[in-house]
Structures
1.
Amino acid sequence: MSISKKLVASLVASAATIAALSTPVYAQSIDELYAAAKTEGQLTTIALPHDWCGYGGVIEGFKAKYPGITVNELNPDAGSADEIEAIKANKDNKGPQAPDVIDVGLAFGPTSKADGLTQPYKVSTWAEIPDSVKDADGHWYGDYYGVMSFMVNKDLVKNVPGDWADLLKEEYKGQVALAGDPRASNQAILAVLAAGMANGGKPGKESGDAGLKYFADLNKAGNFVPVIGKSGTLAQGTTPIVAMWDYNALSARDTLAGNPPVEVVVPKSGVLAGVYVQAISAFAPHPNAAKLWMEYLYSDEGQIGWLKGYCHPARFAAMSAAGKIPADVLAKLPPAEAYNAAVFPTIEEQAANKEAVTKGWDATVGANVQ
Amino acid sequence: MTRLWSWGAFLIGAIFFALPLIGMTEFSLKMRRGVYSFDAYLKVLADPRFQETFSYSVLMALFTIVFGVLLVVPTAYWVRLKLPRARPFIEFITLLPLVIPAIVIVFGYIRLYNTSSWLPLTGTAVGTNILLMFGYATLSLPYMYRSVDTGLRTIDVATLTEAAQSLGAGWATILGRVILPNVLVAVLSGAFLTFAIVIGEFTMAALLDRPAFGPYLQVLGANRAYEPAALAVISFAITWACMGLIQLVTRFSKYTEAQR
Amino acid sequence: MSALPGGKPSSARTVISRLPLNWLGLAPFAVFAMLFLILPTMKIVLGAFQTPDGAFTLENIRGLNTDSIRSAYLVSIKLSVVTALLGCLIGFAMAAAAIFGGLPKWIRNPLLTFSGVASNFAGVPLAFAFLATLGPAGLITLWLRNSIGIDLRTMGFNLLSFWGLTITYLFFQIPLMILIITPALDGLKKEWKEAATVLGANGFQYWRMVALPILFPSLLGTFALLFANSFGAVATAFALTGPQLNIVPIKLFAQIRGDVLGDPHLGYALAFGMIVITGIANTIYIVLRTRSERWLK
C-alpha cells in the first residue's frame, strides 16, 4: 500500500517537474510579478516613438499603474534591425543601454527566435491572440496592426483619391510619395505590395513585380515625388499624398490639428495589413519588469491604449466580441468595412515581395542620375 | 576692382546660405492656420527638458574640445616635426570616422566596454559620459586634425622649436606657450566644428542612453510638422550664439594679442 | 642635452635610443585611435569576410560586384568629387574675399562662426529647409512662378536630382572649406605680397606664382577632407532623394539598419569598400601633395 502511495507521489512530483520545466513561465500572479519588478526598479524600452500607436499614453499608463518602476526609453528612431542589433551588442551588458523588450516587424520574430535573442513568455490573455501572429512557444507575439492608407493634404488636393488606380490620374501630378525608401523601409515595401495587390498580383513575388510596375507608371506619368513623405513635407506641400500606415496618418492628422486639414483614406482595393510583434530579450537585465510590461500591454487597458493611437490591437476581435471597447474610441477609427477586406500576408509572402522590390526598385522605377 | 569681386562673391554666398534658412523659418511660423505666429517656438521652449539636454550637450562639447585639443595638437606637432613618414597613415586614420557610420562605432563601444568587459564604462553614468566624450572626439577627429594640421603648416615649426629649446624650454612649454598661441585660429576652427557636431549628434547619445540634445530633438520632432523646423532654427541660432561666445572669450585671452 | 630636431645622431647608440622615443610621442593618439576607433570598427573589417556563422568567406566582397552596387559606388564617387571641388572653389573664394578682399573687418568673425554652425547643418533639417525653399512646392519656387513668371522646372532646375543634391551638400561643404582654409590664408604674410609687387607682379601673378603654390598642399588636404565628408554623408541624401538616388551609404544602411531583413555582412562589405576607396583617395592626395611640397623644406 505504501509503495503505491510513494509511486503515486513520485509520479505526481515528476509530472509536476516535467510540467514546470517544459512550459514557459505562465503568468505568476500579477502582484508577485510587480513585487519582483519593483526590486529591479527599471524597464528599458527601445524604438517607441510617443506618437506611434499612442505609446506616449501607454507608457504613462504603465507608470501610473505600477509606480516604482522607471521607464528608460532608448532611441525612438530605431528601426527593427537596430533593435535586434541592440540586443546582440548588449549581450554582456547589464547597463541601461540594454533593451528589455522589443517591438519589431513580423518577419523579425522567427529570425530573432532562431538567433536565440528572445525568451519565451505567455501573458495571461494569451489565448485571445490570434494563432497566425504568435509563436507557439511564446517567443514572439503580435501586438498590433494597421492598414496601408493614403494621407491627403486637403488644402492642396481638391479631389481626394479613393484607390490606387486614382493616383495615376493627371490631377495628382507631382503629388504622390512613399513614407520611406522601398529598399530599406518596411512601410514603403509593403506599400508597393499593396499597390501590387490592387493591380491583381497575389501577395508575394507577383505583388512585388506588379507594384514595381505600378510605381514605374506613376513615375513616368510624373505623379511620383521621390522624396520620403512625412507630416512635415505633407504640410509644407512637397508631398501632399503619402502612402503610410493608417495609425501614423491618423495620429499625424491629430497633431496637425487642421493646419492643414487632412483626410485619411483606406484604398478600396489592395488593403494590406501590417503586423508588428513584441518580444522579451533573452539577455534582458530586468526580466520581471519586462514580463509586467507585457502583461500591461495585453491587458484591456494596454490594448485600448493602442486603440487610442489608432492601432488595431491583437485582441481586437475578442475584445469587441465581449464588448470591452468604449464606444467613443471606436468612433474615432475609420469605418470597420475598410478593414474587412484587409489581407494579412504571411512571412514567406512578405519575404518574396521584399526580395522582388529591393532588388528591382532601382532598375524598374529608376535612379534618376542626371 | 578687387573689392567689387569680393563683395560679389560674398553676397552671392550669403544669399545661397540665407535662402534655405528663410524657407525653413517661414514654414516654422505657419503653425497657426492662416497667420504667422511663434506657436511652434513657444511649444518647443516651454519644455523643461530643452534646457536640461541643451546644457548637458554644451558641457560635453566643451569637454570634447579640450580633450580634442590636448590629443590632436601635440600629435600633429610631433608628426610634423619628427615623423613626417607617419603622416599618410595618421591622415588616413583621421579620415575614417567620416566613412564609418557612427552607429557601427557605438555598437562596437557597447560590445567592447560593457559591464562584463575589462573596461566597464557603461556601468556607471560617469563612465558612460567618458565613453560618449571619446565617441564625440572620434567623430570630430577629422575636422580637428585637418584644421590644426593646416594651421601648423603656416608656421615654421622646426625653427620655433629650435629657438624655444635653445632658450631652455621643455616640451610642455614649447607646446603650451609657443606652438598653441600660433595656431589658435586653426584650433578655434576645429573647436567650432567640434561644438556643432556634439550639439547635433544623435546616434551615440541615443544608444548610450545619455540625456543629450540630439535625442531630445528626435523625440520631439518625430511625427510633427512645424516643431522640428522651429527646433532647427532655435538650435541653429543658439549654437551660433555659443560659438560667438567662444570667439569672444578667446579674443580677450592674451594668446591672441600676438595675432592682432 | 636634449636632441636638436633634424640634427644628425652622433653615434649608433643614440640612433637606436632615439627612434623608439620618437614613436612614443604618437602613443596617446595611437592608444586612443586603437581603443575608440579601430577596435570598435574591426567588426566591419572582420564582418565583411565572414558568413553569418562566422566562417571566412570572400562571398560578401564578390557580392559587391553587382550592377546596382557598382553604379552606387560610381555615383557616390562622382557626387563626392563634384561637391568637394565646388566646395573648395566657392569656399576659397568666400574666405579670400573676407580676408584679402577689402571687406570690412567685422565680417570675418560672424562668417567663421556661421560657417561653424552651417558645416554641421545636414541631414533631415537641411533637406527639409531646401525642400521648403527650392523644392517643387518651395517658397522661392512658388514666388518666382507666381510673381515673376519664372518656372524653375522649365528652366531645367530640379532639386530632386543629382545636381539638386549637390547644391544641398554645398551648404555644409562650403563652410567646412571656409573654416579650414582661413588659418592657411592668414598665414600668407603681407610681406610676400609687397615683395611680389615690388618685383613687378600684378595681383593675378602674385596668386599664380606665390600664393597658390604655397597654399596648394593645404587646398589638397581640405579637398580630401571634403571628399570623405561627402562620401560618408547619408542622412541628407536619404531625406531629400531617398527612393531615387542610388548611393553607397543608403545601400549600406539598407543592409545594416533597414527595418526589413538586410544582410549585415553585405553591409560590412559595402563599408569595407568605402574604407578602401577612402584609402585610395588619400593615397592619391599624398602623392600629389608630396610632389607639390618638394620645393618646400
2.
Amino acid sequence: MAWSDAELVSRTLSGDREAFGKLVDRHRRTIFALALQRGFQSAEADDLAQEVFVKAYQGLGRLQDHASFARWIYGIAGHVLADAARAYKRRDEVGLDQAPEIEAGEPVPNTARDTTEVLRALAELPEEQRLVLTLRYLEGFSPKEIAERLGQPRGTVRSRLHHALNYLQTAFGFKAGAGSLAAPEAERK
Amino acid sequence: MNDEVPPGFFSSGPSGPSGSGGNSSLSCEQARRQIERMIEDRDLKEVERQLLLAHVRCCMSCKVELEGYRRLELRLKETFSTLDTAPHFNERLMAALPPPGSSESPEWVQSLRGAEPGENAERSGKIRVAATTVSEPERRTFSRVYWLPIALTALIAIALTATFFRTHGRESESPPPIVANFSGDARRMHKGIESALKRMDVLQNGDSVSSGDAPVNLTLTSGPQLIGAVMLAPRSKLVAVNRHRFEVHEGAAYFHIRKDRPKASANEHFEVDAPGIANVRVTGTAFIVDVGATVIGSKELFAGGALICVEEGVVEVRSASLSSVTQVVAGKECRVTQAGSSLLESDVKARLLKLQQSVLAALPVARGTPPAASKQADAALAVTPLSTVPFSWDMQVDAPLELAGKTLAEGIESLAEKLKRPPELLSLAEQMRGPLVSRTELSFSLHRAMPLRAVLAWMARDVGGGFEPGGIGQRACFTTAPTGNLRGVAGSGVPPDEIKKALDVPLEDRFDQCKTVTEIIERISSSAGVTLIAERGAAREEFERKLAEPGFNLPGHTAAEKLDALLKSLRFNGAWYEHVLFLASPSRIENLTLTERSVPVSPLLIGQPLNPRWLADLKELVQGLRYPGLHSPVKSIHVRAEAVFSDRALAETAVCSGPVELSAEGLKYRSGVLGAAVVSALLSELIVDAPMVAEISGLLSQPIAPGPVSDMNALIGQAAHAVAVKPKVRLPALSHQAFVFKGMSLGGALEWSTWALGYGLKLEGNAIVIADTAECYGAPALQVLPLASLTARKPALADEFPNVIARLLPQLYPAYFAETRLRSIGGKLIFRGDKRQLQLAQRLRSDLELALETLPAAKLSSWLPPFRQSINANLAEPFQGTGKLTRSFAGLLRQSELKHQLRCSVLVDPVAMREHAADQIIDLDVSGGSVGKVLDAIAAKARLKVTIEGDIIWLRPQR
C-alpha cells in the first residue's frame, strides 16, 4: 500500500528518513522538470531540485497541514527557482538559445532536439500554467487531482490547462490557421 | 482517445470554420468544446465521445483541431517522459541532508525523542547532551535520576540490535556478501591493492574482480541466504558496489539472481550497471550483461554499447542517458548505447547456453561455501540447474482444466499441479511471475485433452506471446512475439467429425451470466466441450467490452450456429487445430494457416478421360484466383472476406500463394484456410450445375405495339395488363424516336430498353422491377455453364461445344462478352460474369440445343442462331432507295426507305439521338450499297457505330 503524502510527512517528522526519501521519489521529477522549464541545464536543475528538497526537509516542522505537502513544496520550488533565475540573470540574456548545441557534423538525436524545443516553448508560459501542465503530462493527474493537490478550484486548473494548451498548439503550429504567437498574457498575473 | 480517424477519410468532407458538421448532430462549436473537454479532462461520456467522433469524421476543420491537440499531447508526453533527475539523486540528497543530531539539523529533528529503537538509542544520547546546553533544569534532573537505567537500557538495545542484524543479515552487519567459488587466474582489487583471487575469498563492497582466461564464479549471499550467482566471462571485470549492485566494466557477466532473494526493503532492486552505458534493473532471474569487449558478440557491432541478453524473467534496461527504458523478457536481447536501447531479434540461445553451461559446471563448487550459506545455497541451487534428462513436453494434459481468468503464471501453476509439479513447469511459472510481466488473463479453459506443448503454446498465444520448449541443457521460455505458424497440425477450415457433432448440440443459454465477449466464447466452449481460443490482440477492447444488453443472446439454436453468428459479428474467421478452434481476423487466419494443400480432382474426372487441355484450364483458373495487384494475398482476404465461404463472389478473391500444380492425382497449391475454402467452392461449382436464370422477358411474350417508344412508361403501360412493372430507378424520357422495335415481344423490348439505359430487370414477388444492374444480376462471380444437354444429343461433338459457345458469345453479345475470358473445363464453360451473362449463355445453349436436331456436324463450327442469321440476311440485302439521301438524321433512320427495308429493331443511344436527330444529311451517297452499308453511312454522319447485340441493332457513340 502506498503511503499518502501526509503519512510520509508524519513519519519523517517522527524520525523516519526513508519516509522522506519516498516523498523525494514522489516529487523529484516534477521539481526537476519545473527547473528545466525555467531554462536551467540538466545538472543545474538537478542541483536546484536537491536544494528544494533540503529546504523542504529543514522546514518540514513548520508545515501545518501535512496533506498539503505537494502544494507546499511546489511553492518552495517556485521561490528557489525564481531566486536562482535572478542569480543567473545572464541566463535570461542568453536564454535557452545558448543551451549546449551539438557540434556541427554530429547528428542531433531527435528526442534531444524535440525536448529542447518543447522546453523552450514551455518557458514562455506563466509559472502556474507550467506547473499544471507538468502535473498533467508528467504525473498524469486529471484536472480534478491537480486541483486537489494544489488546493485550487477545478475550474482554475482547467482554465490554466486550456490557455497553456492553446498557446502551445499555436507555438508548435498544430493549430489550424496558426498565426503569430501571442504570449498568454491573459493568464499572467 | 484511441479512436483513430482513418487517414484520408476527410478529404472530401465539408470544411471551413462554420463547417456544417456533416450529418452528425453536433455543431462545430459544440464539437470544439467537446474536444477541449476531452483533451483537458477526459471526462466525456461514451455517447458524447461517439457523437464527437461522428462529427470529426465529417468535418475537416474539427478533425484538424482534434489532430492538433493529439499531436500536442503526444509531444508533451514524450518530452516529459524523458525528464528525470540524474541517477542516485536520492542517495546524494539523503547524504546532503543534515544528519540527525548535527547542529545544522532542523529544529524538528533536534526535538525528536526516541522515536525509533535502534538508531534512536544513539540519537537520544546525543540529544541528551544537547539538552544540557539548553539548560532545562527539570530535564537535567530527570536525566540525573534516570541516567543509569537509561544507559543500561541503551547498551542492551545496542547489543540486541547488533545481534539481530548479525543473525538476520542486514546489509550493514551482514556476513561476507560475495564469495568466490572458483577463481582460475582471476585478480581481486581491494582498497587499491591487487591480489590473486582465491577460492572462498570474500569480496567487500567496492572490490573488483578481473578474470583471466577462465571464467570466475561467484556466489552472492546475504547472511545465510542465497541471493544468486554470477559468472564472469574470461577477460572481464566486475565491480561489486554492494550486495545488490554490480558494475560490468569489461567483458560479460552472467547473473542468475533468485526472485525470492532476501531484501532490505520491498523497493530494493538488484541492479547491474554497464557504467556510462546502461543500468539493468532486475526483477527476474537470469541474464547477461555484455559490454562487448571480449568473449561474446561482435566487438565491432557493439563497441561503445552493451548487450543485455535475458534467459529468464524480465529485466528493465535503462540507457545511461535515461533516454530510454526497455523491458527485456526471456529469450530476447537488448542493445544499449548512450543514445538509447533497442530490442534485437537475434537468437540468444547459443549465447546463453555457452555461459550458462560454464556456470552450471562450476556451481556445485558452491556447496560447502560459505559455511553459513551452504544449506540454503544447496537448497536453492538444487532447483536451479536444468534437467539433464529431456522433459517430455508432449505429455497429455487431461481436460477439463480451468485456465480462463488466470494469469499466465497461475495457469502454468495449475498445469504443474495437474502434472505432479515438474520443475520445468515450476521454472516456467516463476519466469512469468515478475512484476513487469503482463498480467493479461487467459481467456480459455481446456475442455479436451491435448499435449502439454500445445497447451503452453496456446496459452502463450492467448496473451500475445510465443512458447519455445527447451531441450537438454536449455530452458523452455516464453517469448514476447508470437511464433509464426502454430506448431503441430496445420490449421484447417473443417473441424474433426466428433467436434462437429459436439457443436451441433442445442445451446439455449441466453448468456445471462456472460459479461464480455470473452466470456461468451468460453460459455460456448464449455457447453460444447471444445476449446475455443480467440486471438484478442488488436480486438482486445471488443472482447473485454462489457455487454450493454442484459440477457444478450446470439441468433441460432445450436452451439455451431451461435458460434457462427458470433464470428460474423466480430468479423472473425476460425481455423481448426485438431480440437482447438482458433478465432482471429481473416488475415491472421490466412497467415497462420498458410500451407501446402492438395485437393483431389477425381470427381471432375468421373466418366471422362484425362483431358490435358482442360486440366491446363483448371490449373490456370485456380492460379488466376490470386487477387491481382497485391503482393500479399492475405490482404485481399482481409478486404473481401467478410462474406461467408460459400458465397460464390468470393471465388474471385480466393488465395493461392505460389505455383499451382495439377496432375491426375489432384491439385496442389499453397494457401490459408480461406483460400482453401474458396478453391474447394470453385471445384464444387465445377461439379454442380448452375441453376437456370429466370427469363423475365418471357413473362411478356405478346408482340410490342408498333411505333417508337417515347419513354419507358409507354412500355410499362403496355405490360400493365399482364404483369406489374415497377421502376426503382428514375427513367429518362426517350424522345426523338431513339427506340423503335420491330418484330419483338414486349418482354424483349422491355429487356433491351432497360439494358440500353444501363439498368436491369428482376422479379420481386409478382412484379418485374427495374433496378440497378448489380442489384438485378449480382456482382461478377464464377459462372459455370454445363454443356451436358448438348453432349447428350451429340456425344461425338462434346469437345466442340465449348468452343462453339465460347466463339459465339462475344460475337453475339459483344457488349457483355468482349472482355470475358471463357474457359472450358470438364465439359463445362467457366467464366467470370454476372447473372445476365449467364442468362445470355444459357439462351444460346438452348438455341444450339434446338438446332442440333437438324444441324449437320460439319456445320457446327459456322452455326449462328436464327435471330442472328435473320439480321445478317436483312443487312446484306441491297438497299432499294435512291442513290443519294438528303434528310435529317432521324428522318433517314425512321422515315426513309431504310425504315421499310429494316425488319429488325434499331435502337439509338438516347443522348446521341437527342443531339443528332435534327442534323441535316445532304446527298449521302449510298448507291449500290446494302442495307447494312446504308445504316453504317447514316450512323457515321452522327459519329455513331453500328453494333449488333443479340437480336437488336444498336447505334452507339464510337469509343
